[in-house]
Structures are given as C-alpha cells and as structure tokens.
Amino acid sequence: MDTHDILLLAYGAFGGEIRGKTNLQKKLYFLSTMLGIDLGYGPHYYGPYSSEVAAANTNLKVLGYLTESIASAGSYSAEGFEIARHDFRLTEDGRAVVESKKKRFPAEWKKIKGAGETLDAAGELNYMELSIAAKAYFLLDQRGGPAKTADLVRMARQFGWSVTQADIERAVGFLQYLGLAEATGDVDPGM
C-alpha cells in the first residue's frame, strides 16, 4: 500500500469527505500514528505536516477521484484577508476506487476504518484544537517519555508554536481517548 491507497481508504473511513486542509493533515497524522504508518510527518506551523500526504491529495484530485471546494469561513485574518476552508470530497469514480481498495486491502481497510471510528468518537475538535492535539502528541513523541503540560508548552516554543497550558490539557484528554497518552501525574505517550 502506498500513500494514495491509505489516503483513499481514509476518505472512505471519514464518510467520503474531509473539510479543511488542516483537518486533512491532522486526521491523517493521527491515523498514521495509531496504525504505526510513516507518512513523512514533520514539524510545521500548524503542527505535524506531511508534504507526502499533500502531494497524494493533489494527485487524487488530478486523477478525478476528489473534488475540492473552497468555502469562506466568514472571518478575516489579522492582515484583513478572508479565511477560506478547502473541502475535499470523493467523486463517484473516487468512491468506486475506494470500494476496490477495500477489497484489495481488507485487513488494512479494517484497521483504517477502526482508527477513523476511534478518532471520530474522540470528539469533533475544530481545526485549531485538532492542530494543538497533534502538536502535543508530536512533542511527546519527540521527548520519548512523560512530560508535564508546562514542559510541553515550553517545548512547543522551540517549534514556534504558541499554545497555552489549558490548550495542552484539553489536547491530552483527546490523546488519552485515542490511547496515545496516559495520565500518570505527568503526560506519558501511550506508545
């Protein structure tokens, strides 16, 4: 299986649609983490980012398996630019390819579907909250062991990430639900 296959099955697991580029990146980050798949994630402004996932998503769009629509979020950035959200949806051809992939990779489909269900059940976070949760897990993974939430806030600054202790505490609750962190006084990655 390559990144395209994983991404198509992920779209299948998420009902055929992912709303927003940040959500796309973070959902695939958590899926890859939960499943132990390396999709090339590294630190980026909004948390872990994979150019491999972004390129595969573009390729699927070019192949006609995805459509992209741009929706206004109805607000403006500090610089006065309108904030837009890019939504991706499987086309009819894309849905057919996903069905074919499910049959070709049944064990992988079962794992991706299960991880997607767990991620959905963990709660609907907005793109910023999901980004903070991804940052928190990335930091725990970098550290390789337990950390206090205040330590994670300090570590985040090394990547230019601005998060508060309250942000990290909420993110840790989400990570605990996913089985990616344990509460032991300190936050401990549940690897």
Q: Sheet bearing the most strands, described? A: 3 strands, antiparallel
CATH architecture of the largest domain: Orthogonal Bundle
What's the helix count?
Answer: 8
Which residues form runs of ≥5 with pLDDT under 50? Answer: none
The number of distinct β-strands equals 5
CATH class type of the largest domain: Mainly Alpha
Strand order of the largest sheet: 1-3-2
What's the helical proportion of residues?
A: 55-70%
Straight-line N-to-C gap:
23 Å
Q: What is the string of helix and strand elements?
A: HEHHEEHHHHHEE
- Cα gyration radius (Å): 17 Å
What is the overall shape?
globular
Mean pLDDT: 87
CATH overall fold name of the largest domain? Arc Repressor Mutant, subunit A
Q: Would you spell out the secondary-structure blueprint of this structure?
A:
Layout: H1 3-13, E1 17-19, H2 21-35, H3 51-62, E2 66-76, E3 82-90, H4 92-104, H5 106-121, H6 127-143, H7 149-158, H8 165-178, E4 181-184, E5 186-189
Antiparallel strand pairs: 1-3, 2-3, 4-5
Helix pairs in contact: 1-3, 1-4, 1-5, 2-5, 2-6, 4-5, 6-8
